[in-house]
Amino acid sequence: MTSPVNVDVKLGVNKFNVDEDSPHIILKTDPDKQALEVL
């Protein structure tokens, strides 16, 4: 028989590995104001 799962503990596990040295999203220093209005 398996032990019961504590939902709070299960959801609290960090499943994502963060790579702070090489981000996959790069922010522009001077964004296009008109393009930002669309968002």
Task: Produce the secondary structure layout.
Blueprint: H1 7-11, H2 33-38
**Helical coverage, percent range:** 25-40%
Element-level helix/strand string: HH
Oligomeric state: single chain
Q: How many strands in all?
A: 0
Tell me the span between the first and last alpha carbons: 51 Å
Number of helices: 2
- Describe the largest sheet: none
Uncertain residue segments: none
**Which secondary-structure class do the elements indicate?**
mainly alpha
| Shape descriptor | elongated
Mean pLDDT equals: 80
Strand content: under 5%
Organism: Salmonella enterica subsp. enterica serovar Schwarzengrund
Protein name: Ferredoxin family protein
Short structural description:
The chain has helices at 7-11, 33-38.
Task: Describe, in plain words, how this protein is organized in 3D.
Helix content is 28%, strand content 0%. It is an all-alpha fold. It comes from Salmonella enterica subsp. enterica serovar Schwarzengrund.
Q: Which terms would index this structure?
A:
about 40 residues, mainly alpha, 2 helices, elongated, Ferredoxin family protein
